[in-house]
Amino acid sequence: MTEQSSILDDLNDRSREVFRRVVEGYLESGEPVGSRTLTRLMSEKVSAATIRNVMQDLEFLGLLNSPHVSAGRIPTQQGLRMFVDGLLEVRDLEANDREMIDATVAGSGDVTGMLDRIGAALSGATRGASLVLAPKHEAPIKHIEFVGLGHDRALVVLVFADGRVENRIFTPPPGQTPSSMREAANFLNALIEGKTISDLRGVIQREIAARRQEIDVLARAMVEDGLAVWTDTGDRHERLIVRGRANLLGGETPQEDLDRIRELFDDLERKRDIAEFLELTEEGEGVRIFIGSENKLFSLSGSSLVVSPYMNADRKIIGAVGVIGPTRLNYGRIVPIVDYTAQLVGRVISDRSER
Question: What's this model's pTM, rounded to 2 decimal places?
Answer without folding.
Answer: 0.72
